[in-house]
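Changelog-adjacent note: as of this version, every example in the card shows the full chain rather than a window. The one below runs 62 residues end to end.
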Amino acid sequence: MTRNEFDAQFRATEQSTDFQYDKATLANINDTVFAAVSAMDADDYATKSAVDHAFEAAVSAL
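Full-length structure tokens:
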């Protein structure tokens, strides 16, 4: 997937995380997650699950 597809469909924001993370932390999380899933098809049914797992891993690593 492209970065634009990731950002449009999956990017974590301050609102989607209930303002738990500042913009710099969210940028780091999003970069980490995108790197983990960038080879996947944004429209594949399994991608959402992979993105969710990548977000969990990125947040756990903080």
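Structural remarks: Helices lie at 3-9, 23-37, 47-60.
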